């Protein structure tokens, strides 16, 4: 059994909570005491139906205001897979939450109300999904029961959305007509839409192939922590020196020739260690400890790659940045802390090329700043080289966060472009 | 040649993520500690810590906030496990906080030291100058926790501000704090109760005996089975009876209920949990029942 992480974007109106509620219900991930609590609260508030959003909207302020203000993580499993849902609010003022939820997602579900068709917010969700390079996108055309399960209506929406999506970087796009309320095509195929020849949503989630979405080509191992036992659990490890980290790309094997960055020195992997014994190969997302044949000075923040396939050592970065704070704006000359893989440095915003309208994709080249939830293309200068790849090639070596130097809060998320 | 399919099992993915989180903390903070109660989640967390730094010993101390109302079997396990690992165990005592006048003991039948723990915990964090504190909380436990970050920022009062949390993207964790502030770190955030048990089975990890079915004198209150113990105040209208029970969670005796069960092995527990229709906190924790937002309110004050 493996794990699929997926993000859902939308508002209560789209039937998102109903859909999640149904997936949780039918996979028995909602428990009686949770359901009773939700039923009690719905009744107290005078709501006629059981408001399933109360399951996910856990904070006092959310329940009081009837809104979702943050990313909620929900869990369920079927015999085939474990699922982690990053449930994010859909409104434009929560763009940063959707960006956060999409950053780790293997798949995104965008819900469209069949009566309303493709709206501005559907286009925004699709754009953010593509910006964050979520490998699989499902467009769930919901409330099909309210359009008489019309194939024609479904086709119209599919054509309109496909035309828009062709302008984006959407890897794998699947359209599924559903009724979350009635359960049509959610868990099993619906008899109400014999014209639909695809699979149910759950079947798709259980079977979509994600193992090859990880980058298994470019070896990237950011050194996270040096293990050098001063008080070894065993005397045999007295001279042990291992480099621990989580594989960010490629497949590593003992005997492989590798290059250490920033030194550029080459050596070979002598052993890939874990608590459970040495392993014959390591690939994402494994956390392992590498040992090398030669004694090289290696520390946290360094990168291990292959001599003939190295990331860019860059001090000048081009990136799309999503700004995540209302405390200050991003402007040219802003100084920030940047964290990229295991390396932390200082960064200076050299230029803001344009601000992107996330609804229309219009580029405003006159813009002089980015405010909360705004996205723009930025040039950064960094105090020490970062070992980067295009975000489109590797999300782990292409993504970074920006931290405010005064408040220490995370104020931005960046995706590297043109790492060459 | 057959193309290898690099599929990774859910437990391997969760373990790799938790190890990454632990190493990140060890690398970025000066004085971390790991909250170890002898409960199953903290036991799993301890195993992850062993794995993350092997063959070096775990590079931070363990701490237990002891209400003085814990089960003997759990305290015995806590001490033995810490000794086996050669780890330093700090015991922060709620009784000491009471004796020093930092907190006042609740009175009455429902008196519990659950809430008093927060002061003891925060005092200990301040005394030892811990800047990162590992907790075994999971997001599937409770809905306020469903929105908490893996690296959860606490201000100088130890408070959690749910509306002002740091965005957390990819596997990049923001470890920046000022002196006096700290980060609560939850490496098991993405684990479910079933994942924890599957992992205990896979790894063959020992757990305290009270997790398995045993005969115990109990009484019923609010649909929960509370134990017969000196520290639990029982009314005349709450008769004792013998039952075959086990604990799904391990906490303070005054507010942790047992469930009727005959599960005597980890396999049987997994079967039981897979079929159960009640969450573990709903079944066994009086502390979460006081209101819709009980957990959120306690967490805001600095609770685990």
From TrEMBL, chain A:
Residues 1-208 form the Tr-type G domain. CDD domains: CysN_ATPS, CysN_NodQ_II, CysN_NoDQ_III. Keywords: ATP-binding, GTP-binding, Nucleotide-binding, Nucleotidyltransferase, Transferase. Gene3D superfamilies: P-loop containing nucleotide triphosphate hydrolases (3.40.50.300), Translation factors (2.40.30.10). Its EC number is 2.7.7.4. One of its GO terms (molecular function) is GTP binding. GO terms for biological process: sulfur compound metabolic process. PROSITE patterns: G_TR_1 (PS00301), G_TR_2 (PS51722). InterPro entries: CysN_GTP-bd, CysN_II, CysN_NoDQ_III, G_TR_CS, GTP-eEF1A_C, P-loop_NTPase, Small_GTP-bd, SO4_adenylTrfase_lsu. The keyword RNA-binding does not apply. It is an enzyme of class 2 (transferase). It holds the Pfam family GTP-eEF1A_C. It comes from the Bacteria. This is sulfate adenylyltransferase. It comes from Nonomuraea terrae.
From TrEMBL, chain B:
GO terms for biological process: sulfate assimilation. Residues 32-257 form the Phosphoadenosine phosphosulphate reductase domain. GO terms for molecular function: ATP binding; sulfate adenylyltransferase (ATP) activity. It comes from the Bacteria. Its EC number is 2.7.7.4. Gene3D superfamilies: HUPs. Keywords: ATP-binding, Nucleotide-binding, Nucleotidyltransferase, Transferase. It is an enzyme of class 2 (transferase). Residues 281-304 are annotated as: Disordered. InterPro entries: PAPS_reduct_dom (IPR002500), Rossmann-like_a/b/a_fold (IPR014729), SO4_adenylTrfase_ssu (IPR011784), Sulfate_adenylyltrnsfr_sub2 (IPR050128). The keyword ATP-binding applies. Belongs to the PAPS reductase family. CysD subfamily. Heterodimer composed of CysD, the smaller subunit, and CysNC. This is Sulfate adenylyltransferase subunit 2. It comes from Nonomuraea terrae. The gene is cysD.
